[in-house]
Amino acid sequence: MTPKGQIFRVALLQLRPTGTAEGNRQKGMEACRRARQMGADLALFPEMWSCGYQIPEDLCALQGMAISCGDDFVGSFGALAAELDMAIGITLLEAWQPLPRNTLCLFDRHGRQVLTYAKVHTCDFGEECRLTPGDDFYVAALDTACGDMQVGAMICYDREFPESARILMLKGAEILLVPNACPMEINRLSQLRGRAYENMVGIATCNYPKGQPDCNGHSSAFDGVAYLPDMEGSRDTCICEAGEEEGIWVAEFDLARLRDYRAREVHGNAFRRPWKYGLLTDEQIAPPFIRAENRKIR
């Protein structure tokens, strides 16, 4: 019998930006309050909420839009997290040298900043060539009403690389937070489903709604639990999928069931053979294929 357990609720804030940082701050704070009223333990924003995922071609304008993780915009969500007793994952165009970063700051329910993650796999084939990639993947302990849990983060295009979720799983992540800004169709949703299945992790993805350029909603959550002892065959691991419209959706992750599943199933790190995988990181044998013409800035 699967243990009944602690339910961890993630609110996916599928919001349309207002056009200004202050407008986004006010709208975001109101959405967090609504998410808490809906029972959320954590509220997650779409990618680069501080600027509504705007990346100007002019580098001076780009730097002018960037803010630090210590900016009042970010700090107001830390204070709100403590006020609401709810974790908040706020996203921003982060001031950095030589170019800004695409960043998530995670505050726990006490208002402490426990995780800062900058997108590693920037979309260098497009306007994100004007951003600085992050340098690693990180996992943090998050104090929740369900007890401590391990949380990691990817951002949008990171999803395309199995290594992102695999590294986070190896570092102990149980839930992955994925801010997003792109069309979420069957193949991208299938990638998230696959990352959750193969690593036995929960994945919560928050996208912008239809109406935001190149976005269509469909924020989603997969709990990563494909098989239950008392169930024949496999189950659908999708526990939440939003429509295209603006709104807030709450995904419920059963942590006790996930942990029991990870302790007995054969995926994740159970039967890996890492000594066979040297080619994956040997750039002399298999150099990364990055089209030179797309490296417009860096």
What does the model show?
There is one protein chain. The protein is an alpha/beta fold and 298 residues long. It has one domain (7-294): Carbon-nitrogen hydrolase (Nitrilase/N-carbamoyl-D-aminoacid amidohydrolase, 4-Layer Sandwich). The protein has helices at 21-37, 59-65, 72-84, 162-170, 186-199, 255-264, and strands spanning 7-14, 42-44, 87-94, 101-107, 113-118, 139-144, 147-153, 175-179, 202-206, 220-222, 238-241, 247-254. A six-stranded mixed sheet has the order 5-4-3-2-1-12. A six-stranded mixed sheet has the order 6-7-8-9-10-11, covered by helices on one side. The longest helix is centred in the first third of the chain and has 17 residues, at 21-37. It is globular and about 55 Å long. 43% of the residues are buried. The model has no long low-confidence stretch (mean pLDDT 94).
Keywords:
Nitrilase/N-carbamoyl-D-aminoacid amidohydrolase, 23% helix, 298 residues, 23% strand, alpha/beta
Furnish the topology, listing elements before pairings.
Blueprint (H helix, E strand, L loop, with lengths): L6 E8 L6 H17 L4 E3 L14 H7 L6 H13 L2 E8 L6 E7 L5 E6 L20 E6 L2 E7 L8 H9 L4 E5 L6 H14 L2 E5 L13 E3 L15 E4 L5 E8 H10 L34
Parallel strand pairs: 1-2, 2-3, 7-8, 8-9
Antiparallel strand pairs: 1-12, 3-4, 4-5, 6-7, 9-10, 10-11
Helix pairs in contact: 1-3, 4-5
In short:
The chain is of the alpha/beta class and 298 residues long.
